[in-house]
Design brief:
The protein is α/β, with parallel strands linked by helices and 193 residues long. The chain has one domain: Dihydrofolate Reductase, subunit A. It has five helices and ten strands, in the order ββαβααββαβαββββ. The protein has an eight-stranded mixed sheet. InterPro entries: DHFR-like_dom_sf, RibDG_C, Riboflavin_Biosynth_HTPR. One of its GO terms (molecular function) is 5-amino-6-(5-phosphoribosylamino)uracil reductase activity.
Length: 193
């Protein structure tokens, strides 16, 4: 059965971006970039929402480095506001319920998937119990004054079993977990799902 990886890049304080900071907070290094280039999920289908699609396809149209590789990947964008034809190559538009579409892709498809950005999409897929691996790359910055896009707001309580970790360039942390959505705090008669 295909698996689903939720993939986030974050500051230490849980923001996905920060006003005035460059991409990757300006701290991408050769080890991290090499890992991205050799990414084991290069043949996975990329899942994203409309906001991420608009941002990434605009960056690609402007010739932003690295976006040419994304153009070749199979992408599915979930949106009720976008219309076809989409400008970014290899992109399928799904206007129906994202959770049901991903559930069907996992049950009947043959290709694993990973997310790109898309905070609300990732939250709904996790809440539905569809996420097999939760990956977070933590950059060593705190963006308390300028941070935006708080990643975990609105999430349920989740227990995370670490299955892999790695440090890139002596400062960037890769953390991979198997998630379990909880009904309440661990140890309470409501925990577990």
């Amino acid at each position: 059965m295909p698996k689903l990886v939720v993939d986030f890049i974050t500051s230490l304080d849980g923001y996905g971006a920060a006003e005035g900071w460059p991409g990757w907070w300006g701290l991408e290094g050769p080890e991290y970039l090499a890992w991205l280039a050799d990414h084991p999920e290069a043949d996975y289908t990329v899942l994203m929402g409309a906001t991420t699609y608009r941002l990434m396809s605009e960056l690609a149209a402007d010739g932003e480095p690295g976006t040419d590789q994304l153009a070749a990947l199979t992408k599915v964008v979930f949106s009720s506001t976008l219309t076809e034809p989409l400008s970014w190559p290899n992109t399928q538009l799904v206007s129906g319920d994202a959770v049901e579409a991903v559930r069907e892709m996992k049950e009947t498809g043959d290709k694993s998937m990973h997310t790109m950005g898309s905070l609300s999409l990732c939250r709904s897929l996790l809440q539905a119990g569809l996420v097999d691996l939760f990956r977070v790359v933590v950059f060593p910055v705190i963006t308390g004054s300028t941070g935006n896009e708080r990643i975990y707001d609105g999430y349920p309580d989740v227990s995370l079993e670490m299955v892999n970790s790695r440090t890139f360039d002596g400062r960037i942390q890769l953390l991979e977990y198997i998630p379990t959505v909880l009904d309440g705090p661990p140890g309470s008669n409501k925990s577990g799902s």
